[in-house]
Structure to design on (402 residues):
C-alpha cells in the first residue's frame, strides 16, 4: 500500500518573493533559506513572477510598491487565475484602506516593514507551511481513493467498454489532447470527467462547454473572455472558459458545431497555448488539458468545407470511440438495474426489479438514444409500474426518428 506523506518526507514549500528593493529582497530570501523546508525564488516585478507562475508556488510574498502593478493588483490577478496560492503582503505601506483591500482579496497576512518584519515573516511562513503540508497529506489520501475507484462512474463489463477503459488507461497521466467520438447519449462527458478526475489535474477545475448550445456571435467571448468595452454590453472583464480551466481541463463538447471563424482562433490556442481576451492585445499563458467530443464525422465535415482540415488533424491527438449501447450486450441489463436502483433511492421509493420478459425486451431494443434514452425509459417505467416488478406494459420506448 502506498505510504502516506510524513513530516520527514514533506515536499519543499515553494515561495515566490516579489520585491524591487534588491537589498531587502536578498535579506528576505536569506531569512527564508534558513528553513530547510523552503525553496524561495526572488523576482523584481509581478511581470517576472507571472512568467514563472506555471511552477505553481505555494506562497507568494509581495511588496506593495512595485513596477507596473502594485501588490494589491497582483493579488487580484492571482485570484483571477484561480490558483491555490497563499499571499503575504510585506510592505512599508500603512494605509488602512490598502490593508483592508488586501485582506478582502484573500491575502493571508499583511506585515509592515520594520525591525521585526523578518521574524514575523518567518513565523507566518512556518504556520502557513504546516497548513500547506497538511493539505498535501489530505490530497495524497484523496489520490489513493481515486486510484481505487478509477472508472466507477462508467457502468458496464462488456468487451466493448473494456476497450474504452484500456484506451483511457494509456493517457491517464498524460496531457495529450483527447477526442472522444460516439453517437449522442453514449456518455462522452462522463468519460471526459473520468479522464480529468484520474489525472494529475484532478484537484483543479473541470470546465465543460457545449459549443453547439452557444450562438455563433457569443462563442468566442465564452471561450476566450473579454475586457470591459470590448463590445456593446461588455460592462466589465469576464474570464472565458479556457482561463477558468487554467491548471485543469476544458471539455469542448460537440466540437463539430463550432463556427468556422472561431475554429482558426481555437487552432492557434491549441498550438501556442496562449489566449487573448476580446478587446485586449495581452496574451495569457495557458496550462490546460483539452478534451473534445463529437457525435459527427469530422472527416465528412472537412469534405463539406464545414470544418477546417488543419484543426481536424490537430484534434487527432488521441482518439477514444464510445460504442453505441446496442453493441454492448449485457451492459444494457447492468445499466438498467443501476438506473432503477438509483431512481428508487433518490425518490424514496420501495425497491423494484424487472420481470424476465422485460429484461429480454430491453436487450432486443436498438436504443437509438443510447444510455440517455435507457435512463429515461427506466425512470418512466418505474413511475408507471404499480407493483414490485416492472413488466412489459410499463415500458414506453421513444418514438423512432427517421
Amino acid at each position: 500500500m502506498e505510504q502516506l506523506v510524513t513530516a520527514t518526507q514533506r515536499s519543499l514549500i515553494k515561495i515566490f518573493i516579489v520585491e524591487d528593493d534588491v537589498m531587502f529582497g536578498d535579506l528576505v530570501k536569506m531569512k527564508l533559506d534558513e528553513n530547510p523546508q523552503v525553496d524561495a525564488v526572488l523576482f523584481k516585478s509581478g511581470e517576472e513572477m507571472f512568467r514563472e507562475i506555471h511552477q505553481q508556488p505555494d506562497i507568494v510574498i509581495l511588496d506593495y510598491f512595485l513596477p507596473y502593478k502594485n501588490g494589491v493588483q497582483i493579488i487580484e490577478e492571482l485570484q483571477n487565475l484561480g490558483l491555490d496560492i497563499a499571499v503575504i503582503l510585506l510592505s512599508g505601506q500603512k494605509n488602512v484602506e490598502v490593508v483592508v483591500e488586501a485582506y478582502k482579496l484573500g491575502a493571508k497576512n499583511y506585515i509592515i516593514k520594520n525591525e521585526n518584519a523578518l521574524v514575523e515573516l518567518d513565523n507566518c511562513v512556518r504556520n502557513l507551511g504546516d497548513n500547506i503540508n497538511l493539505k498535501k497529506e489530505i490530497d495524497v489520501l484523496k489520490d489513493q481513493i481515486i486510484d481505487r475507484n478509477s472508472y466507477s462512474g462508467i457502468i458496464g463489463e462488456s468487451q466493448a467498454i473494456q476497450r474504452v477503459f484500456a484506451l483511457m488507461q494509456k493517457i491517464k497521466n498524460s496531457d495529450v489532447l483527447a477526442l472522444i467520438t460516439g453517437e449522442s447519449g453514449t456518455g462522452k462527458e462522463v468519460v471526459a470527467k473520468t479522464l480529468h478526475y484520474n489525472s494529475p489535474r484532478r484537484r483543479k477545475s473541470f470546465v465543460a462547454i457545449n459549443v453547439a448550445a452557444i450562438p455563433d456571435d457569443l462563442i468566442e467571448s465564452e471561450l476566450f473572455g473579454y475586457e470591459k468595452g470590448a463590445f456593446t454590453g461588455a460592462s466589465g472583464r469576464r474570464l472565458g472558459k479556457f482561463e477558468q480551466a487554467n491548471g485543469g481541463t476544458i471539455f469542448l463538447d460537440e466540437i463539430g458545431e463550432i463556427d468556422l471563424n472561431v475554429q482558426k482562433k481555437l487552432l492557434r490556442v491549441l498550438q501556442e497555448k496562449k489566449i487573448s481576451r476580446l478587446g485586449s492585445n495581452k496574451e495569457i499563458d495557458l496550462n490546460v488539458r483539452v478534451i473534445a467530443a463529437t457525435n459527427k464525422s469530422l472527416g465528412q465535415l472537412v469534405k463539406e468545407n464545414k470544418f477546417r482540415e488543419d484543426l481536424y488533424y490537430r484534434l487527432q491527438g488521441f482518439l477514444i470511440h464510445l460504442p453505441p449501447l446496442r453493441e454492448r450486450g449485457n451492459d444494457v441489463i447492468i445499466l438498467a438495474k443501476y438506473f432503477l436502483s438509483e431512481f428508487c433511492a433518490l425518490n424514496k421509493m420501495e425497491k423494484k426489479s424487472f420481470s424476465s420478459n422485460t429484461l429480454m425486451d430491453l436487450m432486443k431494443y436498438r436504443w437509438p438514444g443510447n444510455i440517455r434514452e435507457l435512463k429515461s425509459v427506466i425512470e418512466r417505467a418505474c413511475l408507471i409500474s404499480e407493483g414490485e416488478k416492472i413488466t412489459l406494459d410499463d415500458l414506453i420506448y421513444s418514438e423512432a426518428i427517421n
Observations:
- The two ends are 54 Å apart (CA to CA).
- DSSP finds 15 helices and 14 strands in the chain.
- Residues 161-321 form a domain with the Rossmann fold fold (CATH 3.40.50.300).
